[in-house]
Design goal:
Elements lengths: L10 H17 L18 H18 L6 H8 L3 H7 L3 H16 L14 H13 L1 H13 L6 H26 L9 H21 L5 H16 L1 H10 L7
Length: 248
């Protein structure tokens, strides 16, 4: 009788089976135990990101957001195009990054999205004129607000956070105005804050479309809107009636 025939497995099939078993074994390991590959020279760097966003903001201020390109940024900063794209994969990311950088600079001083100790008309006038002087940034913000309707666009998260912060600041300010007797007590501070934000955004759109609107007119329109939204005229009338010399 002959011996038992041995099963011969083709080498190609044997290699495929071994590869499958190896991959399966790796995937079944806990995530924490897997060894991560080291990051290369493109690891995120705050300094490099700031250098890029600062360059983008300069381009926006000089000639508008339409002139922002990866090639130009790379040329002006000396940062390789691949590195620029590593930090900011699309032009929209670059533009959002520039406005975030601008916000960080504005945050170091009082601005229209911050609550200050008192509502000073002189301070408002200064801030309004400063904002209106940066026309290219206003145009960029209008562009980003259009992009923000797309949930996956970086402008959506940026503006949602920015607007929420703005409303929070103005809510605190409106509450303070109520304590001072300048704003009607029956008004909801947060709703009024949202209306103030809408007022400013609407006036900006009108300013960008209508060349006849200047800083003086914008100031008057904003202050008139604020008086209506806070019922300030009514509050002043009530204060007048409460004076002893009025006799009512």
């Amino acid at each position: 009788m002959g011996g038992t025939a041995s099963l011969v497995v083709p080498s190609a099939l044997r290699n495929r089976v071994l590869s499958y078993l190896l991959v399966t074994a790796i995937e079944q390991q806990p995530t924490a135990s897997r060894r991560r590959a080291k990051r290369g020279n493109y690891a995120p760097s705050r300094a490099r990101r700031e250098q890029i966003t600062s360059s983008v903001l300069q381009i926006v201020d000089q000639s508008g957001y339409g002139d922002v390109t990866v090639i130009r940024i790379s040329k002006e900063t000396g940062i390789p195009q691949s590195s620029v794209l590593y930090h900011f994969p699309t032009k929209d990311h670059l533009l959002v990054g520039a406005m975030e950088y601008a916000d960080s600079l504005d945050g170091k001083e009082c601005n229209l999205e911050s609550a200050w100790p008192e509502l000073s008309e002189d301070m408002l006038d200064k801030l309004i004129r400063m904002r209106l002087s940066r026309r290219n940034r206003l145009l960029l913000m209008t562009y980003l607000r259009g992009l923000a309707t797309q949930p996956d666009n970086p402008a959506s998260k940026y503006l949602a956070t920015k607007d929420m912060r703005t409303v929070d600041h103005w809510t605190k300010l409106c509450t303070q105005l109520q304590h001072q007797g300048v704003m009607h007590q029956a008004l909801d501070a947060k709703r009024t804050a949202m209306q103030v934000l809408a007022l400013w955004q609407g006036l900006v759109q009108a300013y960008l479309r209508d060349d006849s609107l200047d800083a003086d007119t914008m100031h008057d329109l904003f202050m008139d809107g604020m008086r209506h939204l806070t019922c300030r005229n009514w509050q002043e009338f009530l204060t007048y009636l409460s004076r002893p010399d009025v006799g009512i």
